[in-house]
Amino acid sequence: MTHPLVEVHGLKKTYPGPVEALRGIDFSFARGEIFALLGPNGAGKTTTVRILATLSQPSAGRALIDGHHVVNEAPAVRRLIGYVGQASAVDERLTARENLMLQGRLQGLAGGVLKRRVEEMLSLIDLAAQADRPSGGWSGGMRRRLDLAMGLIHGPRLLFLDEPSAGLDPESRAAIWSEIADLAHGSGMGILLTTHYLEEADRLADRVAIIDRGTIVAIGTPEELKSRIAGDVLIVEFADPADLAEGVRRLKTNEAVRDLRSSGRTLHLTVENGAQAIPVVMTALQGVAVVSISIQRPTLDDVYLAATGRTMREAEAGIGAENSDSAIRKGEAA
Amino acid sequence: MNDGMRDDAVSRALAPIGGDDADDVAPVHGSAAGATRKEREAIAADPQALLALGALIGRLFLHDRRAPTFVIINVIQPLIWLLLFGSLFSGVTRLAGFPTDNYFAFLAPGLMVMTSLFGSAFSGMSLLMDEQRGLLDRFFTSPVPHWTILASYVLHTALIVMVQASVILLAAMIAGARPSGGFIGLLATYGAVFLIGGAVGALSNALALVLKRHDAVIGVMNFMILPLVFLSTMMIARPAMPIWMLHISLINPVDWAVTVARAGFFGHWQGDLWRDMIGLAVFFVLMTMLAGRAFRRQRLSG
């Protein structure tokens, strides 16, 4: 293979307003890879997927799928991709089998090949027993699995999964995750996944691009990204904001603490060695009302926090770094 | 399911269909948006596109079969009009200008057109629902020419109203009306039902794409349909109309459809019938183009 499966160069999208949904992003990945776009709602994940899936046109930049331009060669691109959007796009009046037959026909399958593929898909998603019941009364998890099968019926080279587990209960989410993990290994299919669940990106993706406000702020394997935050993270929860302020005052000059950031009533401390740092931190915080201290290996949320100055939850809630006090870097404070 | 079976199913399911070579993929279908005329002609001749169109129309007929309420209700209203008005106003045929003294027979082709109007006015609802559920996005990312997607809604509507109109025809025949225009005449009647249904269906889809709201589409269509019905020769012969109404009726597409449907029904081919036929066909083409424009705008707005 001389070219990557997906190649994105300087992709920009501006909506009337003007709203800059994408401010120029670059990434590429190969066949057989699961690539995740991780970021809060509104970061530009869905916009990226919609452009790559030929549903939307970029304002600038270019994107190639297996060497085919997504705008100029959209019909060729559509033959290569499977698209599973955010909503479970199944026809509720049709049975699972009818939904799959329809999607197969739209993909140009017919006759024996179509029938065989439909049966394979039904057994792949464990829905063979429900195949002839209208999908209207199904649970979200079942519909999501059918949705996935519809995206796979023609054996695409690239599968888009836009927030595949959003809105599902934990059990269905786990089922979908194992489904996706199964799909990836052993096949040459590439998967582009968007998610705002850190755990999902961590569990499933070979490589992750963290996207925030239309730009990619970090890119790499989950391990690479986490190892950039060397050391452990101590999470100290305070009783109230005054205690937190006092904690920040005392800890920002502490030698054991390499970096500290606050988020709500908790303080994230980056330290060399978590176990050794706990007694040091406890001593420093004598007299301050601490609710709990926990030690954590760095997560992708810490990577996100380090890159953007806010946690994913804050970003989802629309709290910007500029109007919160979370980005208190060592040595920055006067 | 044990792991061995699962892995087997997965590898089989993921085996590429028809070769694994990246470069054998040629753009078979043109995209309807931005296609040149030549490309469009090539698309129209593409058997793959026609198969996809058939699959999409078949899907909508399955909807009708699973939830037939709307299809049935739509026939009941014209049926009541037929039976009620047919007996209530049977004396109206003694006025000048009626081609028959059987009011049932006079009403039948008109009510076939009315069924077509009511059946097509809310065609845009399916499209709107599919858009909101994300089905349109799924269709758009499939390698089918995009015109087939819009065409499936319009053609399904135009076909289902022909079925509904047949129920009215049957009821009128049971009530004693006889189509005297022969096979060619009935063909003209059904042609009018098809064209007005397709045109109004296309308009409804265009409104759905522009307004994006169910209640707005229902409001606009209700506001238009009934006045157009009463400003036509559906219930009354033209010579019996007040003069202002007569003038309006002449530029009313619903009236063109009624006139053609009725001429076919009785086999009365008046000299200026071609004007109504052409008007009806042009109206159909214009409404289809309007819907196509709204559809392309929707496609490119993402």
Describe the fold and architecture.
- The complex is a heterodimer of chains A (334) and B (302).
- Chain A is an alpha/beta fold.
- Chain A has twelve helices and 14 strands.
- Chain A folds into two domains: 218 residues, P-loop containing nucleotide triphosphate hydrolases (Rossmann fold), CATH 3.40.50.300; 68 residues, Lrp/AsnC effector binding domain/regulation of amino acid metabolism (RAM) domain (Alpha-Beta Plaits), CATH 3.30.70.
- In chain A, the strands form three sheets. Chain A has a six-stranded mixed β-sheet, sandwiched between helices. A four-stranded antiparallel β-sheet of chain A has the order 2-1-4-5. In chain A, strands 12-13-11-14 form a four-stranded antiparallel β-sheet.
- Chain A is elongated.
- In chain B, helix 4 packs parallel to helix 8, helix 9 runs antiparallel to helix 12 and helix 12 crosses helix 13.
- Chain B is mostly helical.
- Chain B is elongated and about 60 Å long.
- The chains are: A alpha/beta (334), B mainly alpha (302).
- Chains A and B meet through helix 2, helix 3 and helix 4 of A and helix 1, helix 3 and helix 7 of B.
Short description:
By secondary structure, chain A is of the alpha/beta class. In chain A, 35% of the residues lie in helices and 26% in strands. Classes of the chains: A alpha/beta (334), B mainly alpha (302).
Q: Which CATH architecture of the largest domain in chain A is right?
A: 3-Layer(aba) Sandwich
Write the H/E string of chain B, N to C: HHHHHHHHHHHHH
Widest sheet: strand ordering of chain A:
6-7-8-3-9-10
- What's the helical proportion of residues of chain B? over 70%
> N-to-C SSE series of chain A?
EEEHEEHEHHHEHEHEEHEHEEHEHH
Our measurement of the CA-to-CA distance between the termini of chain A, rounded to an integer number of angstroms, reads 55 Å
Q: How many DSSP H or I helices of chain A?
A: 12
CATH homology superfamily name of the largest domain in chain A: P-loop containing nucleotide triphosphate hydrolases
Specify the CATH class of the largest domain in chain A: Alpha Beta
Q: For the residues shown, what is the average pLDDT of chain B?
A: 85
* Number of discrete domains of chain B: 1
Largest interface: A-B, 58 and 47 residues
* CATH fold-type name of the largest domain in chain A: Rossmann fold
Q: Strand content of the residues of chain A, in percent?
A: 25-35%
**Cα-to-Cα separation, first versus last residue of chain B:** 41 Å
Runs of chain A in which pLDDT lies below 50 for 5 or more consecutive residues are 320-334
Low-pLDDT runs of 5+ residues of chain B are 1-6, 18-36
Main sheet specs of chain B: none
